Amino acid sequence: MRHFRLNFFGCIAGSIVFAVLSALCFRAGSWAAGVLLLIPSGVAVAALWRLVRRLIFSMSEFVEALEMNDPTIRFPESGDPCISRMSQAMRRITGLYNSARLELETRKLYYDRILRIMTHEMRNAIAPVVSLSADMKKNPARYQGENFAEAVGLISDESEGISRFLESYYELTHLPAPQTTEIDVKDFFSGLRRSFMIFLRESGLPDDTISYTLPVGMTLSADRGLLNRLVTNVLRNAVEAVASAPEPRIEVSVSASGGHPFISIDDNGRGIPPEVMQNLFQPFFTTKPGGSGIGLCLSRQIARLHGGDFTLTSSARGTKALITLP
After folding, report:
1. Cβ-based neighbours of 168, under 8 Å, separated by 6 or more
2. Torsion of Cα atoms, 314 then 268 then 226 then 191, to 10°
3. Residue ranges of E strands in 110-245
4. Are residues 203 and 319 in the same domain?
5. Of 173, 192, 209, which residue sits at a domain end?
6. Does one domain contain both 102 and 200?
7. In angstroms, how far apart are the furthest CA atoms of the chain?
8. Are residues 186 and 295 both part of a single domain?
9. Going residue by residue through the chain (326 aa), what tens digit of pLDDT does each one get?
10. Do 212 and 307 belong together in one domain?
11. Domain carrying residue 146
12. What is the CA radius of gyration of the chain?
């Protein structure tokens, strides 16, 4: 069966032609010829059924694979170009379906985790406020003068903590789509260099702690504001990591490999323990007192919104942050 359509319509035409001829023979009283003509008509109908059954079987396998979430099913190739194209289309659709399903499941797990964290944090923050306000309502005489000011201060602090937490969540889930422009590398890092000179001094570090290796004439296709936020987050972490190093050093380099630009930020800080590393990109995970736990998660999201990525590798000798862009 080299050509499905030709075979399909040929079978239909053959069965009709032989059936008509058979009927004419019966009408003319030629019973023997009529019966003989019914044989090729039956053969054509049988061939037609085999073609239709093959299609039904392929479609049944296709629907069953989607229903059972089976990514391993393979639709056989055929010498017939029509069947072959159909098999290829079925494989593509199955692949896209399973990819979309996996992405949805991953997103569900991600947002389920955020919801659990939010519930836990909100309950912890609200519990003392509810308890204290209920006691103030029940025993107003206890809260006079300094006691009243202390109670109100506690409620205010906890409320501000809740507000900061909700703002962090909003920030994490409402990143804007990148508005990409061509950014000159030298110009971009010139602004960062000036702002980080102040941050280094505030951190008690020498002005030359950060060194830059920047190619002349190179541009990056990215959203300037989002990229600035991403690089700033990573550089701030690097500065905090080297603050206690005997000879603090951070090296920033921009280059390209395989047609893709990348920004590398290496520090000689204390490194990140493996048990911490595996959770670093989880939302609201932090080892810093008062930290929001969204900086690295947000940074990776920004990189991936651009079609790139953000990864970290670390050892006792320091940490390397790698930002890749499309």
Report:
1. 284, 292, 293, 294
2. -170
3. 181-184, 210-213, 219-222
4. yes
5. 173
6. no
7. 121
8. yes
9. 445 555 666 666 666 776 777 677 767 777 777 667 667 766 766 776 776 766 666 666 666 666 666 655 555 555 556 666 666 676 677 667 666 666 666 667 666 766 666 676 677 677 777 787 888 888 888 777 777 888 788 788 777 777 766 776 677 667 788 898 999 999 999 888 888 888 888 888 988 899 999 998 899 999 998 898 899 889 988 998 898 888 999 999 999 887 889 999 999 988 877 777 776 667 665 666 555 566 778 888 889 889 999 888 888 888 999 999 98
10. yes
11. 98-173
12. 35
Work out the number of other CB atoms within 10 angstroms of the CB of residue 188.
20
Number of compact structural domains in the chain? 3
Task: Tell me, yes or no, whether 118 and 72 share the same domain.
Answer: no
Tokens coding 9? 């319509």
SS3 assignment for 96-140: HHHHHHHHHHHHHHHHHHHHHHHHHHHHHHHHHHHHHHHHHHHCH
Of 164, 187, 169, 70, whose CA–CA distance to 111 is shortest? Answer: 169
Pairing of strands 250-257, 219-222: unpaired
Orientation of helix 224-242 relative to helix 185-202, angle to 10°: 40
Cβ proximity of 242 and 268 under 8 Å: yes
The pair of structure tokens assigned to 169 is: 């969540």
Q: Please calculate the CA angle 265-270-272 and round it to the nearest 5 degrees.
A: 75
CA distance 107 to 297: 14
Q: What are the structure tokens assigned to 216, written together?
A: 């002349």
CB contact at 8 A, 304 and 178: no
Q: Are 51 and 4 in contact (CB under 8 A)?
A: yes
Out of 136, 152, 173, a domain closes at 173
Q: To which residue do tokens 């079925």 refer?
A: 90
**Is there a single domain that holds both residue 159 and residue 221?**
no
Please report, to the nearest 10 degrees, the dihedral formed by the alpha carbons of residues 100, 105, 107, 109 taken in order.
-170
Question: For residue 205, what is the domain's CATH number?
Answer: 3.30.565.10
Angle at 303 between CA 301 and CA 304, to 5 degrees: 65
Distance from first CA to last CA of the chain, Å, rounded?
Answer: 46
